[in-house]
Design goal:
Blueprint (H helix, E strand, L loop, with lengths): L6 H7 L37 H25 L4 H20 L4 H25 L3 H22 L6 H25 L12 H30 L6 H29 L1
């Protein structure tokens, strides 16, 4: 089973082995035994996960983020709320990832906190660049739909080589952000997160990496279903997808704001 650059799915990938294949979200065949559970568990809580479970849980988490984000933007909270929510969200993400938690309350709390974070920064940026929020939302949906179509049709196959490339690129992007943040504490600006041609190039690169992470997320969900993961793991997969979607939206919002300010 291949690993994903998404930390949530990397933890999940070590739990079982599934069959290969692509574009098989609609797989309805016999589920092999996996995760230490029988193929036909006696209770609903331990039954094998299906694509409907993934869609439902992801929609619930995403809906929570959207509702909380909308309320936050309407209230016009102070930008410091974005910083606080970002830090809390990061802590929750680490907790969920390393505990491999399938607790719906924890996942939905993460979704709500991200809603506060996204709602606050969206309100601020949309005030500075009117209309950019709607464009960023549409852009995120278009990228998500495009990558899903590419995966389901098999136009882009998630091979081990592609997986390693995406993981390496994601780690590089994370390292660049951390390095730039550390330098900014000493008033050193690399120009990678702001205005200017270099910042625009970096934003485009990050959007591309986030988009390809969606392919890995789809593939990991597909393989977890094939491995007979228990239904409650749909919450964990929903969390992993949320991590990627939040990153994708922030990068698109940042890029659009840069383009319209220049």
């Amino acid at each position: 089973m291949r690993t994903s650059s998404n930390p949530a799915f990397r933890a999940l990938s070590g739990k079982g082995q599934g069959q290969g294949g692509y574009a098989n979200f609609g797989y309805q065949g016999q589920q092999p035994t996996g995760y230490g559970y029988p193929a036909a568990p006696p209770t609903a809580a331990d039954r094998p996960m299906t694509i409907d479970d993934v869609v439902t849980k992801t929609a619930t988490a995403l809906g929570t983020t959207i509702v909380v984000g909308g309320v936050t933007a309407y209230l016009g909270l102070h930008p410091l709320f974005a910083l606080a929510a970002g830090l809390v969200g990061m802590v929750l993400a680490f907790v969920i990832t390393f505990r491999q938690s399938t607790n719906p309350a924890l996942v939905l709390t993460y979704a709500a906190v991200e809603g506060v974070f996204l709602g606050t920064i969206t309100k601020v940026i949309d005030y500075l660049v009117p209309g950019v929020a709607v464009q960023a939302i549409v852009g995120t949906l278009v990228v998500f739909a495009t990558m899903l179509v590419l995966y389901r049709t098999g136009a882009v196959k998630v091979t081990p080589r592609l997986t390693k490339w995406i993981i390496g690129a994601t780690m590089g992007a994370f390292a660049l952000v951390v390095f730039n943040l550390l330098l900014s504490l000493f008033h050193v600006d690399l120009g990678v997160r702001g205005n200017g041609p270099l910042a625009i190039i970096v934003s485009l690169l990050f959007i591309g990496i986030a988009a390809f992470n969606l392919l890995l997320d789809f593939d990991q969900a597909d393989r977890a279903i094939r491995a007979g993961a228990p239904a409650r793991f749909a919450w964990y997969i929903a969390f992993g997808l949320m991590v990627t979607l939040v990153w994708l939206y922030v990068e698109i919002l940042n890029l659009l704001a840069q383009l319209q300010r220049n």
